[in-house]
Amino acid sequence: MSDFTAPGFTLAETPLLSRAAIDRAEQLRSDMDALRAGWADALLLRVNHRGQVRIADGGLVFEAAVSLGAEPALDAVFLGLLDSRHVWAVRVPALTGELGDLRMIGHRLDESGVGLLTTAVALLNWHDRAGFSAIDGAATRPTMSGWSRISTSTGHEEFPRTDPAVICLVHDGADRVLLARQPVWPPHMFSVLAGFVEAGESLETCVVREIKEEVGLDVWDVRYLGSQPWPFPRSVMLGFAAVGDPAAALTFADGEIAEAHWFTRDQVRAALDAGDWASSDAELRLPGSISIARVMVESWVKTGYGRPSD
């Protein structure tokens, strides 16, 4: 570890999925009288198992909630209020028409749309995997308008899980950043390093461990940047920056990383200028705009070593 302390940087903007501006109306989740009263005028978002919804004119397509029945459906989840109207979401096996998922259309949605779709996907993904109690193995049923599930055997209540994961931009304190590619990613697609927090582990310790495990690199000067929900399937990404030595050897022992390289600020800027969906023969392709990884890289390009970009 070096004694050098790199100039810090902050996120240049709030990550897209963290800009959610919805009224979750938590006080209504257990108020069945209020939920029934609002059901007649409520909006419904149908989400298929690929996380896709119907879209039109760059926005979400809502249907009438009463299309599910005369009162709130057991498998529907209450998302909150939109212009004083109740909004619900439900999983469906198939959809027709123009479809899009959060990765594809997130950048086109307003703050309410982003918040509603992110919450819907996260909640429904949890329900898909929470049909049996982790405590007693019994079947569970939804309660609290989709915000908890109860064991049919013991009455034990379980709540939606969110798995914390760190995501870290490693730079050299000057003009280079370390980016890596997973084996399943397309050629030339690189991003910052990430991994899940283990039991009994602090976030900062996780950053150091994950980077060492994935690319064999020691890092220091770990600094928190910001966070973003990531409902694929049910995570929250906790963004950090750290410093590493470009002269150190990189190793890929655990198989999660196929290759990693140090890129210059000019190389990264050129990749950002190419847009979200750079051609497959581009020298460097970066994550899409809904990812906190994109914001982290953009922010480093602007202020990565203590001065604004040219």
From TrEMBL:
Organism of provenance: Rhodococcus xishaensis
Lineage: Bacteria, Bacillati, Actinomycetota, Actinomycetes, Mycobacteriales
Name assigned to this protein: NAD(+) diphosphatase
GO cellular component terms given for this protein: cytosol
Matches recorded under Gene3D superfamilies: 3.90.79.20, Nucleoside Triphosphate Pyrophosphohydrolase
Reaction it catalyzes: a 5'-end NAD(+)-phospho-ribonucleoside in mRNA + H2O = a 5'-end phospho-adenosine-phospho-ribonucleoside in mRNA + beta-nicotinamide D-ribonucleotide + 2 H(+)
SUPFAM superfamilies per record: Nudix
NCBIfam families: PRK00241.1
Family: Belongs to the Nudix hydrolase family. NudC subfamily.
